[in-house]
Structures are given as C-alpha cells and as structure tokens.
Write a structure and sequence with these properties.
- There is one protein chain.
- The protein has 255 residues and is an alpha/beta fold.
- Helices cover 42% and strands 16% of the residues.
- The protein has a seven-stranded parallel sheet with strand order 3-2-1-4-5-6-7, with helices on both faces.
- β2, α2 and β3 form a beta-alpha-beta unit.
Length: 255
C-alpha cells in the first residue's frame, strides 16, 4: 500500500476494444490500472479480473465521458479509490480512449449526431483532462486517442475525423502548457481496427475488410492487439523524450 514507485494508469472506455486491450497491455508491463466503463459493468469487471490475473491491482468506475457535469463526482469517486486501494492521491498515466464513431456523410449528419460526437470525442476529453490534471503525478503521461482518418480520408467519417483532428492540435497545446510538470502528452492514431467500434464495420464487413487489407502495406486489417502495446509503450521511461507527437499505428494504411 502507498508504494509511490508503483505506476497507476486510468483508461477511459476500458471495458472493450482498444481500451480493454490497452489496459491489459499496461498490466503486462507492471502497471496497475483503473478503467472506466459507460454501461457494461459486467464486462468491465471481467477486464479487472484479467488485470489481476496478470498480478496487478485494478478497479473499474462508471463514467459517461460525454457528460461534463458528472466529472466532479467522478473525480471524487476516483480519489476515494486511489486512497482506499493504493493509499495515493495521484495516478501516473491518463489514456483518453473512450469514444464511438458515426458513419454518415456530411450532408446527412444531424446536429444531434454532431453534438453527441463532440461531447464525447472532444469536449469530454478537454474538460475531463482539465479536471484530472491536479490528480496526475509529475512526470506522468497523457495519451489521447486519435485516428488514421486525420491523414487519409474514407467518406462518411467527416464529423468524427474533424473532432479527432482537434484532439491532435489539443495534444500539442497540452504538452506545451504542462511540460513544466514533466507531463508528456502524445496522440496515438490507429488505422482501421477490427473491433466492435462503429458497429463493427471493419470487423464484420468482408468487402470493407478486404479493401483495407489491400491498401495496407502489411496486407491485413489491424487488430486491437496491434494497438494496446503501442499505447502502453508510450508510458515507458524509454519513450520519455517522445512528446507532443501524433504516432500513427496503421500498419502502413493508404500510403
């Protein structure tokens, strides 16, 4: 208890997909992990068990990253967990992963869809990180999840990708403003990944799958396993001089 050398990560949206994979990859590197989940409590608890099976401490907290008014309460609950489980008041790594995608052409995107995306993909990340800033340890890490779609374009993902573009700019500003505390801030931009993200489009649509594989240098679609370790590695001491960058992990998609 109260071991200040033990690193603790907070992964938003850690009950499935990339978030789950990242949480487990971090635990394999000896990091304790707190994950947030939106509604899938049972799934989140399974992830906690997997992390514990890897010999690390873990906890799961409910959070809707699209509701800024709930963040104060979340920080209070997080503080209780840190104190009870770790006898600490700070954690080391924040992975802003929670998100969802909408595949709709610009002309058909509704204001309601736009606002839902904005609240989770940009506004939520902005204000959650602001609220958690005092809880992040000096020399900590913040990893924001972006997308390969800020470099290449696949139609129907305009609103989503524009918000991820905003996240990449925000990443640089966070790195600049918070460097005085030794906090490194980077963005990881995955290419197309076969998860249930966006209704499982990449995973379940054979045509889409084939199209992406044929346009990727490594000749296949990405899996969650291709990304979690990249995010975890950015939290390591060896990557400590890497700061304010967009790291694309796409296997060489649409070069």
């Amino acid at each position: 208890m109260g071991n200040s050398t033990q690193k603790i990560a907070l992964v938003t949206g850690g009950s499935r997909g990339l978030g789950r994979n990242t949480a487990i990859a971090l635990s394999r590197k000896g990091v304790d992990v707190i994950i947030t989940y939106h509604s899938q409590k049972a799934t989140a608890e399974e992830v906690v068990k997997e992390i514990e099976a890897n010999g690390q401490n873990a906890a799961a907290l409910q959070l809707d990253t699209g509701v800024v008014s709930s963040f104060e309460d979340f920080v209070t609950r997080l503080s209780h967990v840190l104190k009870e489980r770790w006898d600490r008041d700070r954690f080391d790594f924040l992975i802003n992963n929670a998100g969802f995608g909408i595949h709709v052409p610009i002309m058909e995107t509704t204001e309601e869809q736009f606002d839902r995306l904005m609240n989770v993909q940009f506004k939520g990340v902005f204000f959650l990180t602001q609220k958690l800033f005092s809880r992040i340890a000096d020399n900590g890490r913040i990893i924001n999840i972006s997308t390969g779609l800020t470099r290449f374009v696949l139609e129907g993902l305009g609103a989503y990708s524009a918000m991820k573009g905003a996240i990449e700019i925000l990443t640089k500003y966070m790195a600049k403003e918070w460097g005085t505390r030794g906090i490194r801030v980077n963005a990881v931009a995955p290419g197309a990944i076969a998860t249930d993200f966006g209704g499982g489009t990449v995973r379940d649509n054979p045509q889409m799958n084939k199209f992406i594989a044929s346009n990727t240098a490594l000749g296949r679609v990405g899996e969650a396993d291709d990304i979690g370790g990249v995010i975890a590695s950015l939290c390591s001491d060896e990557m400590g001089w890497v700061n304010a960058i967009r790291l694309e992990a796409s296997g060489g998609q649409l070069l």
